[in-house]
Amino acid sequence: MTTAYNDRAGPFTHAPTSVSKTMFTVLAALTPATLFNLWMFGWPAIFLFLVTVGSCVALEFLCVRIAGGSPEGAIGDGSVLITGWLLAVSLPPWAPWWVGVVAAVFAVALAKHAFGGLGQNVFNPAMVGRVVVLVSFPVQMTAWVAPRPLFSAGAPGFVESLGTTFGRNVSLDSISAASPLGFVKTELARGIPVDQSIVNVPGLADLLLGFHPGSMGEASVPLVLAGGLYLMWKRIISWHIPVSLLGTLFLMGTLFHAVDPARYAGGLFHLITGASFLGAFFIATDYVTSPVSKQGQIVFGIGIGLLTWIIRTYAGYPEGMAFAVMLMNALTPILDQHFRPRVFGRTRKGQPLPVKGDQ
Amino acid sequence: MLLDVGSLAVMGVTLGAVLGTAAKLLAVPNNPLEEELQALLPGSQCGQCGFVGCAQYAAALAKGDTPVTLCAPGGKATIEVLAKRLGVSADTDGHEEQAPQHAHIKEDLCIGCLRCVQECSTDAIVGANKQLHTIIVDQCHGCAKCFKVCPTEAIEMCTVPVTLSAWHWGKPRADQAHH
Amino acid sequence: MRLFPVRGGIHPDYRKERTSESAIVALPLPAALYIPLQQHIGAASEAVVAVGDVVKKGQIVARSGGVVSAASHAPTSGRVAAVTDFTAPHPSGLPQPTIVIEPDGRDEWAADLPPGIDDPFAADPKAIRDRVAASGIVGMGGAAFPSAVKLNLGTQHKLETLLINGAECEPYLTCDDRLMREFAAEVVDGARVMAHALGAPRVVVGIETNKPQAIEAMTRAAAAFPDVTVVGVPVQYPMGSERHLTQAITGRETPARKLTADLGVVVHNVATARAVHHAVRFGRPLVRRVVTVSGGAIARPANVEAPLGTLVSELVAFCGGFSQPPRRVVNGGPMMGQPLPSLEVPVVKGMSGILALTLDETDEKPSQPCIRCGSCVTICPCGLVPVEMAAFIRHDNLDGAAKSGVMDCVSCGSCSYICPSHIPLVHFFNYAKGALNAKDRERRHLDQIKALAESHALRVEKQAAAKKAAAAAAAAARAQAAAAPLTDDDKANA
């Protein structure tokens, strides 16, 4: 008993949990899918990934230093790595380096630290970063390329890739293509019904594995799903948000597709495109910006699923997960207020339970 | 006899009328907020706030010229209700220094003069002429009026001791409770 | 028997194996015993012995100080060495009046102890309750609520079940486990006697299933009595909480601000049941208790039956002292136990364990920002939102915390235990509950003062009015006296 004995009340034992353990478990769950993505999109993707994550870490260091905290501790908790990581995989893999840097500035400096740092932010930092660059640089942010796996024929070499990421005036026009969601949307705008255009997008297996133009996060649904299940098994996340989110998205897609196949894409198509799984398991489940109670989480998930489907189907953007997540982030405080567990011995309204007579 | 009674009666009626009119003419309009605030104060008229009594302090509070933290016997609880009623923020940090107090009579110095008994506004002192006086601690709220009138300095003000059942955990230190 | 689910809870590392196989050993008489006057919830007891008095074992040394209070008895024969202030086994470290007894080494029972009640089931329930009160028995699971008061609940409520709490859900502690394994018959008999005093037709003993030997021993001891059922309850902290155990067994939730008795259930601890057995069958008051001495810093962890008033330092020395310096010495279990100010404090009736925990075990770390992971919400057995309450309290909004339910918190510690940011949530709630209660007391005191001041002012006013009336009457009398001769003169002149 070297210090004061009553400087802290119990308990005097603790679960083997910590913030950094939680964060690094999430990173571990992301790793297989990301390695697969990096291999698939080659050197430019690797460069962009490093630049984005690096900028986020550097900004975290700077912001915490300015706020007078301990930068080493802040980076050590791993939260900024997750932000950078998720941001990087949500960008077009061959986007120029400055897109990653600008997104990082908005994600870390604005969305996170301007709100007070870890735990205080209202919006998911990675999604803020992505949405800001999406609305600011629509050309760069919609220049998707088809996957060209490392060392495969047609894949750009190391030096050539440096030019893609760091060079000036790179034109991707010659190689860029639309993502499946974008393709279907543009075709529909041209008057080609969904059920006709959809036959021109890659097949189900390619969609599942990610062999189609898109962000890194859109690729490799099975690996993302495996990572999500791993997080559930580790009890880092619960089923409530992913299941309610994907369930709603699938249900909306299936229902409307059944009504009018020419206008609406099917439920399965919605599920396996547009990084739905990444969003459901890794982005919507962000602790800080999602409700704390299970009831609130279910409503939160349903909201994101619904908004994603609406944005994808009716709005100007082909992809809606980022917007949907941010809209529901804004509702989180209200969900926390209204959806809370019932207190032991009290009714939902907070009154003591009535004392029942003999039963 | 009749004349005596009559003259006294006339005098009474006239003076009464004068007083009544004066009261009407010179009446201070009763401020409902003042009354409400006065009801929140202990009402022992101890004057520790620097005003003559609770009514005067309440009046000053209603005008907004004075801080809500002046009532020592009322303690933190009073400060908080006053602050809440007036919609001001109560800075109770400085106040916390002053723990609740009670009076205590030193037996060897008390001469049984009854002055403190007469002064006490909560009947917390019992005693008879030339007998040793005692404080009923439960009824004392530490206004220190008795302390001021005691001719032999037999009264001291003590801090109410913290008992096992009254003790409670303090707020976690800032380094334990990150924000 | 059908069991019912209980919300939330945690599964800490139990570490019970350190003492679960060590049989209860009696502590040799120490050099001095310190009997505090406040070992229970309620009013402090009042000393009835003075310095120099010779006392026998079991003789009353402090009588109950009120309706909710408990007597204390000499744990051995000897001499009262002092009645003085001594550090309480309490996190405040405040001194409190304590009777110090120097044992004479003979350990002689008093000759005038009440006789045992041969057939307690034929006795008047009130006689049993009086005996329990006279024996100074309090809840021995930790809460230390006077048992006689709780046995009185049958007079105001129609009771169905006496629930004997053998859950022992706190990590490390095994004193109840050992008690049930070694003295099952005594526990069962005490429980049946208590059920008789309460007027409850059935007894259910709830034991967490991580104590199979205790369940077996108790089942065997209860086999002869159809009114006694022994049930294994799930291993889920805080199963030993009165309200949660009641829910697990009966499926019913005790309404807020009510007692389990309102559901027809009264809960008593197994050690309390054994104490009642001794008091009723043999007239022996509560003078000893079993304490689990454990923790990584204790050289030889053990279950020790110690006379009440033994210094904790003697218990520790008996268990081989410290093998390494402890980070904390805790009274009770690691979840809800309280840190001790020093080792020089006495063993009291509600002390179930002394744990000397190393830094590895306490795992104290500086707290980090809340990441809103919601674990505390998921595990809270009371359905509260700890993250929100702590935020209110951090910003000194105690009323907000009260509104979000902090007074319904049982301080079980599950939220602090699970928090990945190591935020001392329960410390926040203990502070808020204490501060809110203090405010409430202050408010009530102020109301009392106000009433006194008003009645005083009224009396002073009345006295002044009476004085004025008297003065007016006197003045009138004087005026009359002065006027009368004048009239006479006038008459004379006329």
Total number of helices of chain B = 6
Secondary structure: helix percent of chain C: 25-40%
Quickly name the level 1 CATH class of the largest domain in chain C. Alpha Beta
> How much helical structure, as a percent, in the residues of chain B?
25-40%
Question: Which strand order do you get reading across the main beta sheet of chain C?
Answer: 1-14-13-17-15-16
Distance between the termini of chain B: 88 Å
Rg on CA atoms of chain C, Å: 29 Å
Low-confidence stretches of chain C are none
Alpha-carbon distance between the two ends of chain C: 116 Å
Uncertain regions spanning at least 5 consecutive residues of chain B: none
CATH top-level class of the largest domain in chain B: Mainly Alpha
- How many helices of chain C? The count is 14
Q: What global shape of chain C is seen?
A: globular
Give the overall average pLDDT of chain B.
82
Number of domains of chain B: 2
Structural class call of chain B reads: mainly alpha
Task: Give the key terms.
B: 179 residues, mainly alpha, 3-methyladenine DNA Glycosylase II, Chain A, domain 3, Alpha-Beta Plaits, 2 domains, two-stranded antiparallel ribbon, two-stranded antiparallel sheet, 6 helices, C: 494 residues, alpha/beta, Rossmann fold, Fumarate Reductase Iron-sulfur Protein, Chain B, domain 2, six-stranded mixed beta sheet, 14 helices, globular
Account of the 3D structure:
The complex is a heterotrimer of chains A (359), B (179) and C (494). Chain A is 60% helix and 1% strand. With 359 residues, chain A is mainly alpha-helical. A two-stranded antiparallel sheet of chain A has the order 1-2. The radius of gyration of chain A is 22 Å and the shape is globular. Chain B is mainly alpha-helical and 179 residues long. In chain B, 36% of the residues lie in helices and 8% in strands. Chain B contains 6 helices and 4 strands, in the order H-H-H-H-E-H-E-E-H-E. Chain B has helices at residues 2-25, 32-40, 54-63, 75-86, 115-119, 145-149; strands spanning 101-105, 125-126, 134-135, 155-159. Chain B has a two-stranded antiparallel ribbon. In chain B, a hairpin with a 7-residue loop joins strand 2 and strand 3. Chain C has 2 domains: 16-303, 3-Layer(aba) Sandwich (Rossmann fold); 369-494, Fumarate Reductase Iron-sulfur Protein, Chain B, domain 2, CATH 1.10.1060. Chain C has helices at 125-134, 147-151, 175-182, 184-198, 212-222, 242-250, 270-282, 312-318, 359-362, 375-379, 386-394, 398-403, 414-418, 425-493; strands at 25-26, 33-36, 46-47, 54-55, 60-63, 72-73, 78-87, 95-103, 161-166, 202-208, 228-233, 265-269, 288-294, 302-307, 328-331, 338-339, 353-357. In chain C, helix 3 (175-182) runs parallel beside helix 5, helix 4 (184-198) crosses helix 5 (212-222) and helix 4 crosses helix 7 (270-282). The termini of chain C are far apart. The mean pLDDT of chain C is 93. Chains in contact: A-B, A-C, B-C. Chains A and C meet through helix 1 of A and strand 15, strand 16, helix 10, helix 13 and helix 14 of C.
